[in-house]
Structure to design on (1217 residues):
């Protein structure tokens, strides 16, 4: 053991080095907050208050994890995974959130017994509106399956449903989504 | 493009950044930044991220102190003592480790989850309750208890609205509260040999993990690295301690590893708790009683360096490195029978891997085990799968066998349970017989190969079943509260603690034979006292054989001695040394007899002479506590407590509940050991007996008259001392200087048997000096009574010598005053008396009939100034000593009356200590303190380990050990036997390395060395060594 040995530093480099983790954290935070918030906002039906809560939980979880010294090789994946988990946890913790609030019959009735024609390009705001009108379980299932890109089996696992039930939810969700989008088209 | 195609395309590109409200974003940033900065910051440039050490509460180590210590070390070396380095900054547990416990491990439960408990077995015929603490059912019910040393740690659960409960620490023998600490019961506190791990509340529904000092409850460290939110009832954090590591999780997907001793962050693991595909998230015992998997608690066990974790939230069981936190393997429970309903996993870490048993939530009786088997340690692959239908998920193991409760199909499902013994390596069911009605397995006690079982019939009982014979070994019948949860280990003297079914904590003491005797620990207190230089009877006999004659060479020296006697015992040498501490100016040191290495040290009262017994070392300790100043705030400077120290560690086994008073600064209390009690006469001339097994006062005999007023003067104190107690049979004798009477007291009851005026009368002030007159009086207990000798060379030839009856104190025989008694010993039915003819001053040894006082024969005429006799019955040798210590002494064979040998011949030996060490070495009191001599090789007698060759265990490179010196970390051994030149105290001084090197908190390197010139052993700092040539 070398007693009394000291490394030599350039003036100012210590302070700069010491602040480096803080600057890295700020950079990641600034970049990721809008992405995480946007991700959550869509999945909670544009419930701004809920989206803020879940975004806060996600970002604070990241801050604590980094502060605790956890190694996070891919902060983007970590935060999106956490945000997804927060959303799912939120609805799992609210029993009514899982209820398939719109019955098949109702969807069919709203759809008039058949799907209306859609434009080839769907307006994003209309899609958001339509998603917002979906029951939570259907919206989440559709977003996990078609936006996040999980397989049917994976989506079922995340939702805690059987594959058959998940497929049924997706079918009803898509049908309802088409209906809501069609309604939007016909509105003045 | 179809409508669905367009929809799916729109959905796939749906996510895009959306700025939240600026106020929200800024507020959240401040919060997140605060969270980030208030935590230990990772070192991003290092592959290993280690936050700084936590804030340590307590006395801070002072660099200047170390400098002073370094100087002191060398100064002490100059004046001929042994120096030691001690930073003393850390609160260190000063409680004896119970049998079977190891440093850095849990107390009272096995980290492997195998239910193994340390002995001894509670097999006394009867127990009596010492005390009981009723359950606090309103605020913080009792979860459990642990016993460590002489303390009982009562662990709370549930808590109040804020989940706070009281961790209480009670005296094992009295039930008195030693300390209490409010803790967050989100963490079930665990007692370890280093302290108590608990959650310290912050006052904001959060807590920090902390290590509390065992004796005071003061936090040794607090981990600020993470603030945990209190968990809702009934959830509790997962906490495990093994291999000096704290493993912790609040079941949120994170697992932390902290160093037990320091609280330093070792690793963290974070993973979302998501159940895999096809696994039901809600766990429902009934349709309306559901629990989300993410709300289930995780559980952990540990074995062979591996932490096994059951996370039913993620439906997985995985293994991690206990050192790094690296995941070794993970197994999904999804493919097990009943996988969607598995809610609980029992685990036992064994050498072969992990024994797992899964419980099915939806089973009708909630206890069915749907799967059990052994998974391999290296990859988690199934080695075997159990076939028996288990009726209970609790299992215990003893290394070779696994014990489970199974439903015997012949008796019908639900008639639980028979005990099945399963070979761990193969899963083979070896035996299934032995049904004893409804039971639950509670543990395995290695002592007597016993399974601990709770019977579930009315009047719940804890019983011990012989594993091999399946017979009843013992049954706990503890009245009046009963025993629902026994607390192991049981104290060395058999005192045990139990929790009743309603949470009452009670301590029980065995009554009647047989007393429980722990394995591997000193046997229960016996009459044998190795206290030098006298036996219980003060009859001049000593154990062991006479030393070999011839030349002896210096082997090693102890530190400068205090007032007290050197006592060799079981490979150690105990001696009083002068060493300043906060509570005393001297202490007892245990040395390794072979090397002189200091094994432990404890400050003791200077005026209470210690005694070494098979049960431990009896000392008096100033009435102070912890690091507080001496004496305690409301105590006198003379107050002390009697303490029994562990022979091996020096840690207290018990501490007397009451305080006693020393006679003063210049007089000694001579503690005597007899009938399993420590006996002494205190400042007020009360004779006190303290039970060696329990530390409780058995009885006391008060003096009918207070000490003479002049005895308060320092100069008078030695003259007012009652001297050494003498005991034989059921009687202890002492001389009361205040009454001028010899008193005989029953050892069993403390009742006075008789008292009679001694030849000297009550103490009185001398008219010319104003001081009390000297009262030379020595008592020796024999079967027939007590021998009283008042003859003293300093008394001008006057004195009496005679035997008083044990029955009533009447004189049996008495010698005239024409012959002085210089010294005597009891040798069977005879006395060997060194008499001095008052006319011609000649000395002779005479054999005297003990029963009548008749001189049977004159053995030897002595020419020279001999003053003392010592008799070693083991080889019938009589030692005749001189004023000059060993020089000139000789040994006489009592059978042949021949002078067999001289010596040993040493450089200097004022008082030879008995017994002689087993290897033939001798320990001596000298003018410079304890010195150990070894026979010179030329003498042809056994020789101890050669000087410079330490028997201390070698320390491997990089291996971290904690020495007996606090805060000194051993890292590598220098070349043993190699020498170095010192620049201090004089250039050219030479030392030999004796095997240890230490690095203190200030990064100074210290070597343990032995001076070639003086044989002194001590530490020396590296920068005092001359540069290598």
């Amino acid at each position: 053991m070398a007693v009394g040995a000291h490394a030599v530093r350039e003036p100012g480099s210590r302070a700069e080095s010491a602040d480096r983790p803080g600057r890295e954290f700020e950079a990641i935070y600034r970049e990721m907050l809008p992405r995480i918030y946007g991700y959550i906002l869509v999945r909670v039906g544009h419930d701004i208050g809920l989206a803020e809560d879940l975004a806060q939980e996600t970002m604070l979880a990241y801050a604590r994890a980094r502060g605790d010294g956890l190694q996070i090789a891919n902060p983007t994946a970590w935060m999106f995974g956490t945000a997804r988990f927060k959303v799912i946890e939120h609805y799992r913790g609210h029993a009514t959130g899982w209820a398939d609030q719109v019955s098949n019959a109702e969807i069919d009735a709203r759809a008039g017994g058949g799907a209306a024609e859609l434009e080839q390009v769907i307006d994003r705001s209309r899609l958001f509106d339509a998603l917002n009108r979906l029951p939570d379980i259907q919206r989440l299932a559709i977003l996990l399956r078609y936006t996040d890109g999980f397989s049917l089996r994976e989506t079922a696992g995340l939702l805690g449903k059987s594959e058959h039930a998940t497929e049924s939810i997706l079918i009803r969700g898509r049908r309802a989504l088409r209906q809501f989008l069609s309604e939007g088209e016909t509105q003045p | 493009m179809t409508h669905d195609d367009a929809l799916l395309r729109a959905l796939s590109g749906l996510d895009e950044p959306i700025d939240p409200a600026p106020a929200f974003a800024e507020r959240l940033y401040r919060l997140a930044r605060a969270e980030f900065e208030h935590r230990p910051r990772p070192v991003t440039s290092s592959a290993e991220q280690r936050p700084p050490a936590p804030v340590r509460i307590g006395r801070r180590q002072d660099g200047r102190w170390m400098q002073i210590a370094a100087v002191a070390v060398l100064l002490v070396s100059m004046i001929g003592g042994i120096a030691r380095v001690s930073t003393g900054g850390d609160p260190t547990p000063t409680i004896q480790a119970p049998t079977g416990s190891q440093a850095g491990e849990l107390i009272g439960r096995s980290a492997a989850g195998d239910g193994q408990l340390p002995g001894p077995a509670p097999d006394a015929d009867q127990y009596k309750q010492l005390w009981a603490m009723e359950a606090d059912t309103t605020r913080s019910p009792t979860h459990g208890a642990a016993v460590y040393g002489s303390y009982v740690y009562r662990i709370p659960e549930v808590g109040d609205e804020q989940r706070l409960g009281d961790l209480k620490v009670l005296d094992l023998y009295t039930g008195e509260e030693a300390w209490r600490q409010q803790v967050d019961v989100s963490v079930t506190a665990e007692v370890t040999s280093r302290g108590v791990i608990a959650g310290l509340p912050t006052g904001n529904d959060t807590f920090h993990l902390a290590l509390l000092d065992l004796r005071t409850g003061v936090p040794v460290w607090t981990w600020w690295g993470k603030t945990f939110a209190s968990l809702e009832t009934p959830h509790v954090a997962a906490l495990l301690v093994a291999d000096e590591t704290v493993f912790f999780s609040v079941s949120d997907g994170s697992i932390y590893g902290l160093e037990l001793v320091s609280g330093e962050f070792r690793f963290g693991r974070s993973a979302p708790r998501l159940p895999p595909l096809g696994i039901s998230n809600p766990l429902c015992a009934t349709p309306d009683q559901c629990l989300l998997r993410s709300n289930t608690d995780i559980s952990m066990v540990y074995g062979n360096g591996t932490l096994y974790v059951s996370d039913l939230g993620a439906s997985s069981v995985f293994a991690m490195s206990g050192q790094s936190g690296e995941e070794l393997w993970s197994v999904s429970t999804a493919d097990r029978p009943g996988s969607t309903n598995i809610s609980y996993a029992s685990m036992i870490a064994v050498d072969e891997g992990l024994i797992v048993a899964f419980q099915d939530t939806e089973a009708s009786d909630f206890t069915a085990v749907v799967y059990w088997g052994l998974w391999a340690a290296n990859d988690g692959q199934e080695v075997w799968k159990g076939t028996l239908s288990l009726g209970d998920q609790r299992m215990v193991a003893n290394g070779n066998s696994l014990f489970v409760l199974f439903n015997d199909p012949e008796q019908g499902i639900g008639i639980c349970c028979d005990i099945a013994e399963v070979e761990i390596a193969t899963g083979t069911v070896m035996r299934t017989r032995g049904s004893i009605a409804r039971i639950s397995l509670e543990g395995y006690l290695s002592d007597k190969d016993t399974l601990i079982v709770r019977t579930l019939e009315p009047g719940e009982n804890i019983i011990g079943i012989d594993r091999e014979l399946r017979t009843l070994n013992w049954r706990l019948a503890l009245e009046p509260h009963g025993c629902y949860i026994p607390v192991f280990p049981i104290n060395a003297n058999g005192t045990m603690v139990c929790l009743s079914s309603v949470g009452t904590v009670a301590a029980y003491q065995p009554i009647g034979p047989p007393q429980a005797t722990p394995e591997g620990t000193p046997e229960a207190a016996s009459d044998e006292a190795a206290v030098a230089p006298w036996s219980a009877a003060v009859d001049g006999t000593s154990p062991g054989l006479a030393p070999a004659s011839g030349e002896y060479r210096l082997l090693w020296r102890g530190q400068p001695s205090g007032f007290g006697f050197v006592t060799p015992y079981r490979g150690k040498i105990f001696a009083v040394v002068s060493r300043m501490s906060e509570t005393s100016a001297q202490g007892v040191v245990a040395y390794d007899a072979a090397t002189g290495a200091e094994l432990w040290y404890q400050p003791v009262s200077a005026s209470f002479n210690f005694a070494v017994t098979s049960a431990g070392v009896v000392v008096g300790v100033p009435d102070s506590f912890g690091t507080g100043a001496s004496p305690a705030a409301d105590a006198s400077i003379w107050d002390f407590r009697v303490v029994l120290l562990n022979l091996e560690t020096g840690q207290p086994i018990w501490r007397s509940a009451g305080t006693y008073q020393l006679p003063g600064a210049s007089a000694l209390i001579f503690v005597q050991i007899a009938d399993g009690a420590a006996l002494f006469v205190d400042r007020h001339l009360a004779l006190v007996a303290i039970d060696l097994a329990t530390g409780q006062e058995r009885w006391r005999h008060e003096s009918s008259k207070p000490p003479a007023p002049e005895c308060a003067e320092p100069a008078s104190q030695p003259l007012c001392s009652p001297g050494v107690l003498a005991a034989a049979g059921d009687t202890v004798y002492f001389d009361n200087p205040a009454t001028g009477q010899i008193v005989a007291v029953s050892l069993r009851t403390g009742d006075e048997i008789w008292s009679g005026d001694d030849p000297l009368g009550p103490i009185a002030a001398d008219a010319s000096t104003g001081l009390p007159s000297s009262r030379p009086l020595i008592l020796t207990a024999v079967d027939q009574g007590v021998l009283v000798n008042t003859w003293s060379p300093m008394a001008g030839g006057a004195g009496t010598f005679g035997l008083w009856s044990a029955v009533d104190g009447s004189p049996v025989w008495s010698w005239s005053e024409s012959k002085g008694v210089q010294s005597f010993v009891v040798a069977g039915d005879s006395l060997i008396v060194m008499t001095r003819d008052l006319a011609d001053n000649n000395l002779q040894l005479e054999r005297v009939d003990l029963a009548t006082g008749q001189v049977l024969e004159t053995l030897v005429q002595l020419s020279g100034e001999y003053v003392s006799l010592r008799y070693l019955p083991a080889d019938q040798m009589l030692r005749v000593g001189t004023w000059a210590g060993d020089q000139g002494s000789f040994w006489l064979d009592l059978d042949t009356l021949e002078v067999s040998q001289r010596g040993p011949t040493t450089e200097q030996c004022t008082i030879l200590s008995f017994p002689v060490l087993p290897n033939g070495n001798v320990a001596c009191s000298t003018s410079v303190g304890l010195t150990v001599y070894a026979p010179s090789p030329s003498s042809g007698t056994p020789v101890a380990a050669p000087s410079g060759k330490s028997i201390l265990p070698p320390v491997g490179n990089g291996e971290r050990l904690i020495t007996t010196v606090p805060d000194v970390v051993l890292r590598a051994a220098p070349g043993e036997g190699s020498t170095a030149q010192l620049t201090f105290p004089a250039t050219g001084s030479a030392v030999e390395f004796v095997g240890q090197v230490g690095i203190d908190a200030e990064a100074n390197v210290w070597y343990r060395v032995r001076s070639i010139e003086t044989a002194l052993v001590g530490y020396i700092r590296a920068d005092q060594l001359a540069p290598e040539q």
